[in-house]
Write a structure and sequence with these properties.
By secondary structure, the chain is α+β, with helices and mostly antiparallel strands. Helix content is 27%, strand content 25%. It has a single domain (8-168), classed as 2-Layer Sandwich (60s Ribosomal Protein L30, Chain: A). The chain is built from three helices and eight strands; from the N terminus they run H-E-E-E-E-E-H-E-H-E-E. The protein is globular. The protein starts with 7 loop residues before the first helix and ends with a strand. One of its GO terms (molecular function) is deaminase activity.
Amino acid sequence: MRGPRQTPFLGALREKVLSECNHTDEVAVCPSSGGQTATGDAGRVTDAPAPAHTFSQGVRKGNFVQVSGQGPVDPETNEYLYPGDVAAQTTRTLTNVKSIVEASGATFDDVVTLRVYLTKREDFAIMNDAYGAFVLEHTRGDVLPSRTTVFTGLPREEMLVEIDAVAIL
């Protein structure tokens, strides 16, 4: 998996972000967007995979954080992990989501909803067990995030699960 394809538009957009945003290795705070914090190419979260195309890993606007759909990808190599193992893919995917949430300044307790995309209905129980173990381990409060599960095709054949999230600080 590679980062975004560089086009004249993307190159100009990246230069604009770099010139207007205060950024670290993890997040960019863009004054021109009303203080919006964006995790993306200019301030990529290194503990989560690089986005594959022209979108951010996640975006924070005010106290609202939207994490783009994540998959079972190693953040260092951008390789898809655990072919055929939906439990391990679920745990890795949730770890990637958590990294982006935390880079935005939120915690996993701030996650209000998670949307899970599965390729096979028969993987639901296994995913549910792995999901439950992860969420219970990483949620400190009494309220768990809401969740929707959708059965669908995913962009890569080796992906059995994809998860996106919304957090509110």
